[in-house]
TrEMBL record:
Residues 1-21 are annotated as: Disordered. This is DNA-binding HxlR family transcriptional regulator. One of its GO terms (molecular function) is DNA binding. Residues 24-125 form the HTH hxlR-type domain. It comes from Streptomyces echinatus.
Length: 137
C-alpha cells in the first residue's frame, strides 16, 4: 500500500530523508524536539540518568519555565516515548520522570548541538550586530 502522491515516493524506515520533503523524518523530529524547553528537559533528565526527578525538581532546574510549559513539554516527551512517567499513589500523588533508552539516545545529538552553539554563537551574534549596524533606520 502506498501513501505517496503521484510523482512522490514512500519514505522507508531507516532511509535518509529529504529535509525539503514534508514527510522527512528530520522535519518531524525537529517539530517535536526543536524547542529550548525540550532540549533543557532532556539535558536535566540525562544528568540524573538512570535516576528520576519529580516535577517540582525539574521546574527548579530549568530556569524560566512555567508550570504549564513544563507540563506540556513532559506530556509530549512521554507521548513520544522519550520520557517515562511514574506516579506514586500518595496524597498528593508524587510524579517522577526519567529518560527512556530512546530519550537517552537523544542526549548525544543534543549535546553536540550545544557544543556547536557554544562554539559558533559568538560569530553569529557578531554577524547579526554587523547586519543591524549596516541596515539604515
Amino acid at each position: 500500500m502506498t501513501t505517496s502522491r503521484p510523482g512522490e515516493r514512500d519514505q522507508r524506515p531507516g532511509e535518509r530523508g529529504d529535509l525539503l520533503d514534508p514527510r522527512c523524518p528530520t522535519r518531524h523530529l525537529l517539530d517535536r524536539i526543536g524547542t529550548k524547553w525540550t532540549a533543557m528537559a532532556v539535558k536535566v533528565l540525562a544528568e540524573e540518568a538512570p535516576g528520576e526527578l519529580r516535577f517540582a525538581e525539574l521546574r527548579r532546574r530549568i530556569p524560566g519555565i512555567s508550570q504549564k510549559m513544563l507540563s506540556v513539554t513532559l506530556q509530549s516527551l512521554v507521548r513520544d516515548g522519550l520520557v517515562a512517567r511514574r506516579v506514586e499513589p500518595t496524597v498528593p500523588p508524587a510524579v517522577h520522570y526519567r529518560l527512556t533508552e530512546l530519550g537517552l539516545s537523544l542526549e548525544g545529538p543534543l549535546s553536540a548541538l550545544r557544543v556547536w552553539a557554544e562554539t559558533h554563537m559568538p560569530e553569529i551574534d557578531r554577524n547579526n550586530q554587523l547586519a543591524d549596524e549596516s541596515t539604515p533606520n
